[in-house]
Amino acid sequence: MTSRVRKAVIPAAGLGTRFLPATKATPKEMLPVVDKPAIQYVVEEAAAAGLGDILMVTGRSKRALEDHFDRNHELVATLRRKGDDRRLASVTESDTLARMHYVRQGDPLGLGHAVLCAADHIGSEPFAVLLGDDLIDPRDPLLTAMLDVQERHGGSVVALMEVPDEDIGLYGCASVASGGAGDVRRITGLVEKPDPGNAPSNLAVIGRYVLAPEIFDVLRTTPAGRGGEIQLTDALRALASGEAAGGPVHGVVFRGRRYDTGDRGSYLQAIVRLACERDDLGPDFQDWLRKYVANEL
């Protein structure tokens, strides 16, 4: 048994180069997905799982993230004076989701280094890490399932997803022990972006983790790996293999709805899928989309 996770870390220090020039002055995390910035979906997911203390690891030009989750007194007063309760509720929602904290990464040394920047805030308790490029549909509570696995087994828990063999080189990849109950697997090894011909499985690591605090000790001694960065995958491999104390590492195979905002094409698909499912936008938008596809494509 282990203590229940209370804190989450959201790395948000990337430059967003794949979305230039839109991200020249605007953090990629603030790009809208329908009518909310992508990062708000991630914070909402953490809050819905009971994680009320959130540390965002940021970098230069990321002040807009702090402003978004802060109270805008002038805007609130204006909307209240107009009696615009609907918009008032939408703008105040973001500043009441969780207790938000911020730390700067400084040097762009990789995901492992970003997680290590959270060590002082986290202390000696397990914590969650949520990457902003992966939006998980709230109807498929992946993070809650991972927290339950961590509470039962201790150690760390990684979200996994089956992908086509030819795509595994885009992800971290897990090797797993045989057996396992339901969608829970014991991870025996991890490799970052393997050659598809040498991948140990088709189980890709996606952007949700629940980590034991021992991960910090491992990250402090983890050398730069692929791309010259400190890879979280390398530290987790040490825990999974028993090279370092703090294991075990389990994986939860996710079979639900995931929206990838990591590149332009997937970002557009995410907007279309989420807009189609909205009660207020979906019917009219789907009708237009059908006509557009029929007439223009």
Automatic annotation (TrEMBL):
Arranged from A to Z, the UniProt key words for this protein are: Nucleotidyltransferase, Transferase
Give the stretches traversing the membrane: none
Q: Name one GO molecular function term.
A: UTP:glucose-1-phosphate uridylyltransferase activity
Q: Which SUPFAM superfamilies match?
A: Nucleotide-diphospho-sugar transferases
Q: Does the keyword Nucleotidyltransferase apply?
A: yes
Q: Which domain of life is it from?
A: Bacteria
Task: Domain (Nucleotidyl transferase): give its ranges.
Answer: 7-272
What InterPro entries would the database entry show? Answer: GalU_uridylyltTrfase_bac/arc (IPR005771), NTP_transferase_dom (IPR005835), Nucleotide-diphossugar_trans (IPR029044)
Report the EC number(s), separated by commas if there are several: 2.7.7.9
Reactions that this protein is recorded to catalyse: alpha-D-glucose 1-phosphate + UTP + H(+) = UDP-alpha-D-glucose + diphosphate
The protein's enzyme class:
transferase
One Pfam assignment = NTP_transferase
Name the family.
Belongs to the UDPGP type 2 family.
What is the protein name for this chain? Answer: UTP--glucose-1-phosphate uridylyltransferase
Organism for this UniProt entry: Streptomyces luteolus
Q: What is the lineage of its organism?
A: Bacteria, Bacillati, Actinomycetota, Actinomycetes, Kitasatosporales
